[in-house]
Specification:
The protein has a single domain, classed as 3-Layer(aba) Sandwich (Rossmann fold). About 35% of the residues lie in helices and about 20% in strands. It has 11 helices and 11 strands. The strands form 2 sheets. Strands 1, 2, 5, 6, 7, 8, 9, 10 and 11 form a 9-stranded mixed beta sheet that branches. A hairpin with a 2-residue loop joins β3 and β4. The radius of gyration is 18 Å and the shape is globular. The structure holds adenosine-5'-diphosphate. The site of adenosine-5'-diphosphate (ADP) has 19 residues, from α2, β9 and α9.
Length: about 290
């Protein structure tokens, strides 16, 4: 059974939440972003994690590719401004977003997925983004509202990692239909995943389910499933929080290489995040 949160942890999350709320431009309530005239986004799905480096971007990319393969019109908004990795995964290193009628045009992947990311607008994509909250929020608002998205079935948002200010403000401002929570096996035994679950609950955003990344790997000699972090706790953890257990993803060195080489979209194995995709598609009619 995962550890429950202590009162001190709860208080810390409550304080982070209050701080983020205090910083919102409109004290009476968050401003929810709206797409520009001529663009329509049917469903917005956020991908979140309690901390960085657990494979949130990889899962965002995989969901996008598989929804696209299922015949949907898909876009990715890379809201992980300080650690953007989507453009590189999709072979867009060096690509730049153009503008039409003072609005940004997302860059199209090989397979037709629209992508908007800070790395597509920075002069040098290796420059660190050393901005504070309000500036980050300004960019995210621009990405959502001042972008020529066109007609999109699913906009996947690679959310800022963690449960700090920026993540909370994004939760308040993006019209999220639901969030997929990504965790690593260690997160499931620590408190990290509970932070993400509680944040979604506080913001009243439905949780699509929990994905356990880097859960196992095929033995290079015999192909048998090896669980380097011990038996999965996905089902037990999901049960504990009353959310759905989705995919258990393997550590896949080839996929890590594909991310670096920019061929992720072509190389992603079929059905890599099948349960998460099924769950998202099953909620089609629940959108706004
Ligand atoms: P986050 O968005 O949570 O910071 P990323 O998706 O950028 O994490 O993943 C961090 C690194 O781990 C990347 O180099 C990525 O290619 C690698 N990675 C993530 N998940 C896997 C996996 N299942 N198998 C192999 N490598 C992975």
């Amino acid at each position: 059974m995962p550890d429950t949160m202590s009162d001190a942890d709860r208080e810390q999350i409550r304080q982070e939440f209050e701080t983020a709320r205090g910083k919102a431009p409109d004290q009476e309530g968050p401003q929810v972003f709206q797409t520009a005239p001529g663009s329509s986004v049917k469903h917005v799905i956020g991908v979140v994690s309690g901390k960085g480096g657990v494979g949130k971007s990889l899962v965002t990319g995989a969901l996008a590719v598989e929804l696209k393969r299922a015949g949907k019109k898909v876009a990715i908004l890379d809201a992980d401004i300080t650690g953007p990795s989507i453009p590189k995964m999709f072979g867009m290193s060096g690509a730049r977003a153009t503008a039409t009628d003072e609005r940004l045009n997302p860059v199209l992947s090989v397979g037709g997925i629209e992508v908007m990311s800070i790395n597509l607008v920075l002069e040098h994509e290796t420059d660190p983004v050393l901005w504070r909250g309000p500036m980050l929020m300004g960019v995210l608002r621009q990405f959502y509202e001042e972008c020529n998205w066109g007609d999109i079935d699913y906009l996947l948002v690679d959310m800022p990692p963690g449960t700090g200010d920026v993540a909370l403000t994004v939760f308040q401002s993006m019209p999220l239909d639901g969030v997929v929570i990504v965790s690593s096996p260690q997160d499931l035994v620590q408190m990290v995943v509970s932070k993400a679950v509680n944040m979604a609950a506080m913001m009243e955003v439905p949780v699509v389910g929990l994905v356990e990344n880097m859960s196992w790997l095929p033995c290079p000699h015999c192909g048998k499933r090896v669980e380097p972090f011990g038996p999965s706790r996905l089902a037990e953890t999901a049960d504990y929080y009353g959310i759905r257990a989705l995919d258990q993803l393997p550590i896949d060195p080839n996929l890590a290489k594909s991310c670096d080489a920019g061929t992720f979209e072509q190389d992603l194995p079929q059905g890599f995040v099948a349960q998460a995709v099924d769950q998202i598609l099953a909620h089609e009619e629940l959108g706004r």
